[in-house]
Each structure stands twice: as C-alpha cells, then as structure tokens.
Amino acid sequence: MAGVLMAVPSRIALLGCALLCACATLADAGRGDVDLPNVFSGPFRTLKRARRCYDDPTTGQQFCVGDDELPEGTQNGIAKYPGLPPSRSPSALVRGPLHVILFVGRGKEGSATDRIARLESKDARKFDDVVDVLPLDRPDEGASIGDPWALDVDGKVTLYYSSPTGGIFRARARDGLVGSSFDKDGPIALEGAASPLETEPARAPSVMLFGGRYRLFYASGTHLFEAESTDGLRFRRLGVALAPSASVDPATLPEGVRPPFDDASVDDPCVDRILTPAGRVLVRLLYTGRDKSGGSSIGYAGRFGDEGAFEKRAGFVYGGKLPGGLTKNSHANAPAVARFDDFALLYANQDTGESIQRLGVAISPQTISLPYPESP
Q1: For the chain, which terminus, N or C, has the lower number of CB atoms within 10 Å?
Q2: What DSSP letter does each residue of 147-167 carry, written as one string?
Q3: Number of structural domains, the chain?
Q4: Reduced to 3 states, what is the DSSP secondary structure of residue 142?
Q5: Across residues 64-88, what is the average pLDDT?
Q6: Can you tell me the mean pLDDT for 259-271?
Q7: Which helix (H) or strand (E) holds 225?
Q8: What is the CATH number for 193?
Q9: pLDDT bracket for residue 5 (50, 70, 90)
Q10: Which range marks the domain in which residue 120 is found?
C-alpha cells in the first residue's frame, strides 16, 4: 500500500506494453462532465539513466548526450537512497516543488518489515535522509508492521499502517508536519457486518479526510473495501469498493490482446479526491492488480462523487515486463503518487532482476523528462 497528499497544486488505461510502462488511450483531463479524467494518473514510464559521454578522438574532448533522470549510481527506474534493508510499500507527502517525504516499511533483508521509516528528498528521486520512525513494539501488532499511509491532520502527520494479524493501526506525529517521531494510539475499529469476502484482517490502509469525515480504503482477501469515520479510529463499513476483473480465456482473445491483469486479486489502494475543471468530485484509485499467471501491475479506477461504484478501465498504468529485455512478468505493486503542477511521480515496489524488490519511480505524462524546470 501507499499514499499521496496533494500539497502542491496539482488514474485509466487500455492495454499495456513492456519495459515497465503502460501504453493507453486516456480520458481527457478537461472533460469532467463526460468521462473520468486521468489528471496525470498514467500511463507512467520508468525514469531512466540516459546520459552517455564519449571521447572525441580527433579533439581529445569529451561530449555528452541525453539527460539522466536518476542520480548517478542508480539503475533505471530505481529511486536512490542509502543502504539496506530495501524499503517497501511507500506513501508520499509533497512539501514543495519536488520536495517529497516517503514513509516506507523496512525490515531485515529477506524478512518481513518490522518498522516504518521516513525518507526525504529535495529532488523527489535521491532520498538521503533516512530514519526509522515507528518500531514494531506492541503485542497486538504481531510479527511485522508495514503498508504505511501518511496524511496531514490538524497540523500533524498521521500514519495508518497494518500488520498481517492485527489489522490497521494509527500513530500521530509528536513534531507536527515533520513526522520524525510518533505516538501510537491503538488499532482502529471496523464496525458493522463484515462482508463474506473479508477473509483476512484488514490491511494496506489508504485514507482521505474531507468535510470532517475520514474515508478509509483497505484490502482483505482478494477485494478492496471502504469505510467511514468521524474520528479516524472507529470506522463504519460501507462495503466492497473494488473487485478483481472477471477471468477471460486467453484463447478467445485477439492476437496481441492480454487477459485482465487483475483477475486474481486487487490490493494496495492509493486514493485521492479532487474537483474536476467542471466542479465535480472525482475520487481516483490506484491499486495493485494480480493476475492468475503470478504477475502484478498497477491499475486505475475512478468515480464521480463520494459514493457508488468505481469505473475500472482494462489494462494497467504501470507494469508489464521486467526491464533489460527480460520476459517474465513484473511484480510491480503498492503504488504511491506525488503530484506536481505539470506531472506526477509514481513510487512502487519494482523488480530489479535480483531476488529483492526496490522502490521504483515513474512519471506521467510520459512525454515529460526530468530534470524539469521546477527541479532544483
């Protein structure tokens, strides 16, 4: 799971393509009374290391072409931050032009995450300031914690996070909007009859706050669910928010058309709420879709208004094949978005061709390259 806060003025695709991008026809961002606008919600393309330097044998001088979108020493698509263990399941807060704070789960390499860490970057790509801010220290948290979601409430960073056995918990910052130390104030309560589809403890929280109400999206089993609260701790269940797509026999599809990327499960909601240019409420939902072949990619769904069903478009906005010419499916998951004036950056768990995932970073629209004019 992952999060987003639009602290600077400021998802829907068809069929995907390789190299951790998605190729799509998107809704028009300005037709808010007609369709579901994407507003920099995909497709996303992986940030690249594209700068190459050569020696001119005739002059002895060096010349360089292209721009690196990622810091030196960083492989394509992977955000740079120091050391191990790898960070997992990011949540993003935007504090200024390309000033991003990520909250992530971390743990010993090869093991479950046992803490929440804070990463900070002034260029949204190189995360140098890394500090653990929330340890695993409550008996009801079980053996691990992770899947943080961060938002600002009453001048304080508020963290929601989950454990596989204990459900969803909350913590509030002692240092206001800095968010470097937290007090835990207990697990949340989910009230009302649980759906038969809620087969596991709630996980991967994503929370909006509007009109004095908290709206929680969470995963359980193979579905996403929605709940509401006035205090941020006691939530009333509202029902299923998103279901996996129906399975399709690949033999019945035209050549080159892939089965649904989310026919096994949907997970890791990342939600935000805006007003369209036409003045309508639009709730945008990025999520992890898992398919029956074992791959996972990032999808997008949306709805007008604060109630009702989400419209889910077929195809992913980030995912596909591993970079470097590898052919197996990727396992991109746990999206978070940082939105800026002219583009958005997506952070998500991404395969590296090794045995571990690291934080990938991608951009929408795909035509924009970094560094950008608002880069420092």
Answers
A1: C
A2: EEEEEEETTEEEEEEEETTTE
A3: 1
A4: coil
A5: 77
A6: 95
A7: strand 223-229
A8: 2.115.10.20
A9: very low
A10: 45-364
Amino acid at 185: D
Phi, psi of 250 (to 5 degrees): -55, -30
What is the Cα–Cα distance from 296 to 319, expressed in whole angstroms? Answer: 7
Any idea which of 19-23, 57-61, 130-134, 166-170 has the lowest mean pLDDT? 19-23
pLDDT at 25 over 50: no
Amino acid at 89: S
The torsion angle over the Cα atoms of residues 44, 49, 50 and 54, rounded to 10 degrees, is 180
Tokens of 222: 């193979």
Phi, psi at 217, each rounded to 5°: -115, 135
Residue 280 lies in a domain: yes
Q: Is residue 76 part of a domain?
A: yes
Report if residue 106 sits inside a domain.
yes
Distance (Å, whole) CA 130 – CA 133: 9
Q: How far apart are CA 245 and CA 265, in angstroms?
A: 8
Read out DSSP for 334-366?
EEEEEE-SS-EEEEEEEE-SSSSEEEEEEEEST
35 pLDDT tier (thresholds 50, 70, 90): low
Q: Quote the CA–CA distance of 1 and 266 in Å, as a whole number.
A: 11
d(CA 208, CA 228): 10
Q: Which helix (H) or strand (E) holds 113?
A: none
Q: Which amino acid is at 271?
A: V
C-alpha angle 331/337/343, rounded to 5°? 115
pTM of whole model > 0.90? no
Task: Tell me the average pLDDT across 341-358.
Answer: 85
